[in-house]
Amino acid sequence: MAVTKVVRYLRLVTVNQQRVARKRTYLMCPPEHFTVEYAINPWMDPQTPVDPELAVKQWDRLRETLTGLGHEVFVLDPEPGLPDMVYAANGAFTVDGTGYGARFKHEQRAAEAAAHQAFYRERGWRFVAPLRTNEGEGDFAYLPAAHGGLILAGYGFRTELPAHAEAQEALGRPVVSLNLVDPRFYHLDTALAALDDGNVGYFPGAFSAASQQVLAQLFPDAVLADDTDALAFGLNLVSDGLNVVLNSEATRLAGRLRAVGYQPVPVELAELKKGGGSVKCCVAELRP
Predict the structure, then answer these.
(1) Per the structure, how many domains does the chain have?
(2) Is residue 177 assigned to a domain?
(3) How far is CA 228 from CA 205, 234, 248, in A?
(4) Catalytic-labelled residue, pool 71, 164, 281, 282
C-alpha cells in the first residue's frame, strides 16, 4: 500500500513539473454597452434581462484575475451600438506578430472588425484583412508546440471553410479544419481550448465523427469535458499553461484539470453568458 502511494505521489510530481505558466498578453473590451437586444446564437434571449452593472463587475474581476496571474492586458475602447464588443476574441486571430482580421457573419457585429483592425495597425502589427467570413479567435486556436506549430480551425456555423485556407496563407502555419455540428457550440472556443502550447481540452459531442477522430489522433492526452461542463461554457477558458481561468460552473472539468496538474481558477460570468460567451470569448491572446 505504501508503494502505491509513493508511485502516485511521483506521478503527481512529474505532472506538476510539466505544467509551466508562461506570461501572456491579452486584449479585452469592457462591457459598457453590453445588452442582449437580438439573438444570433442559441444562448441569446432578448426577453432575459441583463444587469449592466453586474456585467461590468464580473468583467473587471476577470481582468483582475488575469493581471493578478502576471499577464498583460490591453483594453480596447467599447463603442456605442456594438453590445457584443465585449467578446474581444472574435475580432482577429494573431500568430507571430501578424493579425488575421475578422469578417463577421451577422451584420449586428460587422462594425467591430474595423475597431480591431485599427488597434493592430496603430501598434505596427502586420495585419491581413480577410476576404472570407471568419470570427477570429472564436474559431481559431494556436498550439505552437503541437506538430511544429498548428492552427485548429472550426467551421459549420460562423467561420466558413475557405477562411481556413486564407488564414493558412496569412499566418504561415498549417491549419486543421474541424467541423462543428451542434449549434449550441457555434464557435470552436465553446467546445475546444488550448490548455498549453501542445495540448487541448474539448467536448467530443460538438464535433462531427470524422473531426473527433482527427482530434483523438492529434491529441491523445487531451482533457475531455462532459456535456454538463461544456454547456456551462467550461471549455470557453483561458490558460497560461498552468493556471486555467474558467467558468465557475464547470466544476467537474476543474477537477479533471486539477488531476492532471493544471491549476483551475474559477470566475463567475453569469451575465456575460447571456450573450453566449464566457472567459475565452472576452479575451483575445496577442502573440507578437
Answers:
(1) 1
(2) yes
(3) 11, 9, 13
(4) 281
**What are the tens digits of pLDDT across the range 169-222?**
999 999 999 999 999 999 999 999 999 999 999 999 999 999 999 999 999 999
**Domain housing 117:** 23-286
Strand order in the sheet with 175-179: 140-143, 150-155, 175-179
User: Which parts of the chain have pLDDT scores under 50?
Assistant: 1-14, 16
Nearest to 154 by CA among 191, 124, 123, 120: 191
Kindly state whether residue 226 falls inside one of the protein's structural domains: yes
Of residues 71, 116, 187, 282, which has the active-site annotation?
A: 187
Residue 10 resides in a domain: no
- Tell me, yes or no, if 281 is annotated catalytic: yes
Has 187 been annotated as catalytic? yes
Report the predicted TM-score, pTM, of the whole model to 2 decimal places: 0.93
Domain contains 172: yes
